[in-house]
Amino acid sequence: MSLYRNAVWFVKGLQEYTKGGYETAAKYFVAGDLDVNLSGRDFMITGANSGIGKATACEIAKRGGTVHLICRNKERAEEARREIVEQSENENVHVHLLDMSYPRQVWEFAQSFQENHSLHVLINNAGCMVNQRELTEDGLEKNFATNTLGTFILTTALIPALKKSQDPRVVTVSSGGMLVQKLNVDDLQFEKCTFDGTMAYAQNKRQQVILTERWAAQHKEIHFSSMHPGWADTPAVRSSMPEFYEKMKNRLRTEAQGADTALWLAVSASAIKHPSGLFFQDRKAVSTHLPLAASRSTPDNEERLQTELEQLVQKFKPQPS
């Protein structure tokens, strides 16, 4: 079944996920959807010092939004901030240093952020694809710690702040790669199988989509969405998938094209006309499963995913003083 899924997905990708796929889809975009004034609205973007995160941050800043860049590397973050301020002529761009793979740090950051800032939109963009099984200092598998657990903690911890704001939204940058994976809640940290970084990443991205659906059902005041940026030419793709990059580099989307739907979901009035919890590609809600791919999980397993994450994060949650 996995061979079937991979083959169908790759053919679909060649048609839809490339630069050509974006250009075809963009013919049907409503041009005015992004003509918005974002002054007075606060946006948090993880993984914002390069690629899709940085491109999204820049477009938000150009429209007057206050942008909080969540980055690991101080030097690269400050350089990204300088470029965004220069291009947008908006000084309301702030750097926060945080490694999303350290759950205790994520909790502490989210708690202190809420004491000092308001938040209207969270964009979960940070991600990693480590191709060898690697453990963090906390004993967590690195991809899972960053892509699933870090995203889960940050989102969960910021829900109270979001609920205080008008038109709150959470946008999670997932991946079409998740279409080749069925949720495997029995092996969240890839301890029982031969490790494959690309498949681990795709499994994490499936988990993000399921969490988005669950959060949408549980927190009606917030508009949740997940999205696939397509195959974009980003530093992450070049470093994590060098063979794929070499094969596809002339067909990859630009960073701005990859960021377009995340931006649209974060700022447009049209986006929130769609129900909360959906998965988007090129400004359209699309299926979270390939035809005949047997990738659907049971409601019990989806509930178990959330329960297991909630139990795991308790040991990293700061205790009230």
The fraction of residues assigned to DSSP E strands is 5-15%
The shape is globular
Mean pLDDT: 94
Could you spell the SSE succession in H and E letters?
HHEHEHEHEHEHEHHHEEH
Number of helices: 11
* Order of adjacent strands in the largest pleated sheet: 3-2-1-4-5-6-7-8
Low-confidence parts lasting 5 or more residues at pLDDT below 50?
Answer: none
Beginning-to-end CA distance, first to last residue? 51 Å
Largest sheet: 8 strands, mixed
| Gyration radius over CA | 18 Å
The total of beta strands comes to 8
Structure overview:
The chain is α/β, with parallel strands linked by helices and 321 residues long. It has helices spanning 2-16, 19-26, 51-62, 74-88, 103-116, 142-163, 197-218, 235-240, 242-248, 255-267, 299-314, and strands at residues 42-46, 66-71, 93-97, 121-124, 169-173, 223-228, 278-281, 284-285. Helix 1 (2-16) packs across helix 2 (19-26) and helix 5 packs parallel to helix 6.
